[in-house]
Design brief:
41% helix, Ribosomal Protein L30, Chain: A, 3-stranded antiparallel beta sheet, 3 strands, alpha+beta, elongated
Length: 108
């Protein structure tokens, strides 16, 4: 069996770029803040569910955020990389639509 230890050289007959010529192509996605907006029709249990399921909060932390949401009408939930936040927001919106709630979550 041939030795498969990387040598840093591209295989012969390929157009692969050797590691010493790699550009730093790592892109860091900008962060956005997820914001929940209060409304009179969405039950607290649904908001708790979203915080726990889609954003990883434990119940006490989720309840604290819901208290702030009810008191202020909106609450900044978390700052996430934009693609991660958009996925979570899409899941929240889908869950709200399936449940028939007008709940709104945005990012800024």
């Amino acid at each position: 069996m041939p030795d498969d230890t990387p040598t840093g050289k591209p295989p012969e007959g390929t157009d692969a770029v050797p590691p010493e010529e790699w550009e730093d192509s790592t892109v860091i996605a900008p962060k956005v803040t997820v914001v929940f907006h209060d409304d009179p029709q969405t039950p607290v249990d649904f908001v708790l569910f979203c915080l726990e399921k889609y954003f990883g909060f434990d119940e006490p932390a989720a309840r604290e955020l819901v208290g702030c949401l009810r008191a202020k009408g909106r609450v900044e939930v978390v700052s996430l990389a934009a693609p991660v936040a958009e996925l979570a927001l899409r899941r929240v919106a889908d869950a709200a639509a399936q449940s028939g709630y007008p709940f709104r979550a945005t990012s800024n």
